[in-house]
Amino acid sequence: MVASGAAAGSSVGGAPGEEASFISALKSEVLTYTAMNGLLMLESSDEVGLVHVPVSLLPAMAVPRGLFEEVRALAEPFNVLVERFASDPVAIKETLAAAAKQDEFTRDLIRVYDAVLGGPRPSVARKNLAVNRSDYMMDQQSQRLLQVELNTISSSFGAQSTILAQMHRQILSKFDFLRQSHRGLWPGGSLLEESEDAASAQSRVPYQDTIGDIVDAFAAAAGEYRGSRGSALGPGGAVVLMVVQDDERNVMDQQILEQELWRRHGVRMERRTLAQVAEEATLGEADGILRLGDSREVAVSYLRAGYSPADYKGAEEWEARLMLEQSEAFKCPSIAYQLVGSKKIQQYLAEEGALERFMGKGEESASLRRCFASLWGLEDLGDPKTKEVIDHAKKNPHLYVLKPQREGGGNNLYDEKLREALEGEGDLSAYILMQRIVSPMHKSYLLRKGECVNADTLSELGIYGVYLCDNGREIINKCSGALVRTKLASSNEGGVTAGFSCLSTPILH
Amino acid sequence: MVASGAAAGSSVGGAPGEEASFISALKSEVLTYTAMNGLLMLESSDEVGLVHVPVSLLPAMAVPRGLFEEVRALAEPFNVLVERFASDPVAIKETLAAAAKQDEFTRDLIRVYDAVLGGPRPSVARKNLAVNRSDYMMDQQSQRLLQVELNTISSSFGAQSTILAQMHRQILSKFDFLRQSHRGLWPGGSLLEESEDAASAQSRVPYQDTIGDIVDAFAAAAGEYRGSRGSALGPGGAVVLMVVQDDERNVMDQQILEQELWRRHGVRMERRTLAQVAEEATLGEADGILRLGDSREVAVSYLRAGYSPADYKGAEEWEARLMLEQSEAFKCPSIAYQLVGSKKIQQYLAEEGALERFMGKGEESASLRRCFASLWGLEDLGDPKTKEVIDHAKKNPHLYVLKPQREGGGNNLYDEKLREALEGEGDLSAYILMQRIVSPMHKSYLLRKGECVNADTLSELGIYGVYLCDNGREIINKCSGALVRTKLASSNEGGVTAGFSCLSTPILH
């Protein structure tokens, strides 16, 4: 990893003396801050050794303040859009019908969804809690932020992005003296005014409290749950069940929420894999109460797993998921929310009139639509418009991305592989074709496993939205902070824990 | 390490089911808390991989509330005692004369001390800042806490002990439900009332803010320094210089102070080894101003190194130390304070009238004296009283400890090695003989590198005292929190970072 970084950029060891000593001081500050504030991940699955999460030393993504405010303003309407789409089972199943035929995972999810809707308490399907995250890239041509995808399940780094923003603000203040003499070192630095003071520089990294927003929403959901249970609530109280992957290395981002939920609200969070849920949890047939062990009732089911086929090793895991969905717990997210986050629905929403079906024809829809990239469905290869774009993509594969329904990084097809897939004989209905957003490259100092490289990078901006809604009664709808991931321009992959990209922050100008 | 633990106690894997599941939940809580709150140390000197510091899962040392308050009340008089002794160069040099003949390190320290006193600004020797820590063990026979030693240099774990106390208080509250059904699992548990509520149980782990007390004292010293410099203060401002060992693994305990000093007071702390000080720092001949690089002035020299001969690899390091001592910076500690913390002076103070020479004959001296263990000097082997105790120690080596002047763990002689030393021909004047305090053993759950063992252990209680005094003008004198270290009863060694002992907390009853 270090080697590829060094190949892609210039090694810091080669920097001129003054710059090198500035960067070395920054690196030491970052290693201290990450170690002391939970910006860590497991080194391996041995559960003990820790290493800092990959980060940029300084805020990496320069964003015009107006564009930043524009995408922030979309978080609440996106929350509403997901809720409205998810409340329309006919629309979900129609839209996903062709993809479900090709994609087994989509089929399985819809099967669970149908079981809930056809079960004894269909209204539990609409006890919705969401930590959504809409991801954007800067389109160099239009100079706009275009949506890459809308995550409705397991939107990660909400906790660590909050702490990283604190770190970058502290650095801009603490290194004020040095920063002023090194404005040219990083794109953000050259945006600062020559004599800009520390407080002003700091305020360019937007304040956020995504940790607080998420745990406040958990606590509010737990409060709703307790209210509905009243004196019937069991002796162990109501807990938040966090469903996790068993080989998770990025545990700190999850545990920060666990700790803060306890500190702020005295609400306990229990971590379990789907297999453990299958083993330990029970669902009351008469009342739909989900219990962990004998006593503790589950008020919220919070999924940091279950978005990938690999999370369902067998029938047990699917039964566990069904149990979660059929329970009276708030679902973060429900299976309907998860389905609405799929690529096919993203592509459908971009079709004429589709978004408007849920959000009307007013200014709100127009604003949402302005961030959409161009997207094409591939169900009907005989359709002249589809034929036309496929022909264009075969000739210009670098202008497109081919995305499968499946969630989780590493599945997209680019360049030659995209061309091969389009030229092949396979059915493409579980894929969507998307405009490849060409972003401006920028130099960043990236720190991974203690090794620092200065490299050409690309950045992606995520905006969190938190939402709580019980069968149409909206309780919380809030935009909540930003996440920047910065990756080497030479890589098509983007996973942070896997080491392909680094957490960073926006710097507004 | 794990193997020796398993040999000394019963492995947790062998515990009955309910207990094992309670301990497993505790362990997971502790791993989360330590990872997120800087209770970490470097796995090795590679500067990146981290692992939790060894800790006990629960407060390990049961202490009667009255005894705890008694030793807390000694912290301020001990601070004063150190200041008064350190202000009497004749007393220091007389007391250490015999030891200095035998011990090269003591001789070197006194040489630096003489150079400061004989230099152009002898008053800088009394710009004193102290983080003292008096360590006690429970004497089973007398049921009193007896002083093991008084640390005047590099008293470590002030920061991490504060965070560990927070962790143990949180555990007593969060695991309330489980704790009540497992009161018999640990000595502290059986002290709790049967139906004691979480808040009451929590309050048995004394609140402390040693982090705040230490950084407030640093900031006060920096303020005094800035006040005395006025408009002459250079552009980089006044910093705290933390002198560290180059292979330090316990960096987090130090960096927590660095971070908090910045957060609370906007005062910067710079970490340097003695060799780096020799290379980078300069001392103004005319004004005694110590500078790092060209601009930053050093307001406080804070030693987390320099207490062991190994920290002085050559003449450069000694020159660096002399530069620190001769500067106008506050010294934490000064060389005089360091000398007053030596074993020989501890033994001298226990002699009739010696303590009283500095503290008078009143109740204060009587209180201090009550915590003294029996100590004997070994300069005059012809003295009948010395002969008598040596004869007794040769026959009963298990009742004694033989301690060299040198600081840092691992140098004490016990049992057969003690007998051999006393029977040998060597000069013993650089050693003191001390009553071995026999403490009650207790079972503890210890967590080291993620492995949990339940073992017979012994605990030691440290009480911090913070002190700031400029040539007799006392500015701060404060008792500040507790440290418990718990070690396997089967080991004579006690280093936490080395893995021999674990950080813990007192539980009062």
From TrEMBL, chains A, B:
Its cofactor is Mg(2+). Pfam families: GSH_synth_ATP, GSH_synthase. Residues 238-340 form the Glutathione synthase substrate-binding domain. Substrate binds at Q254, R485. Binds 1 Mg(2+) ion per subunit. Pathway: Sulfur metabolism; glutathione biosynthesis; glutathione from L-cysteine and L-glutamate: step 2/2. It catalyses: gamma-L-glutamyl-L-cysteine + glycine + ATP = glutathione + ADP + phosphate + H(+). InterPro entries: Glutathione_synthase (IPR005615), Glutathione_synthase_a-hlx (IPR014042), Glutathione_synthase_C_euk (IPR014709), Glutathione_synthase_N_euk (IPR014049), GSH-S_sub-bd_sf (IPR037013), GSH_synth_subst-bd (IPR004887), PreATP-grasp_dom_sf (IPR016185). ATP binds at residues 343, 403-412, 414, 434-437, 460, 487, 493. Belongs to the eukaryotic GSH synthase family. NCBIfam families: glut_syn_euk. This is Glutathione synthetase. The lineage of its organism: Eukaryota, Viridiplantae, Chlorophyta, Chloropicophyceae, Chloropicales.
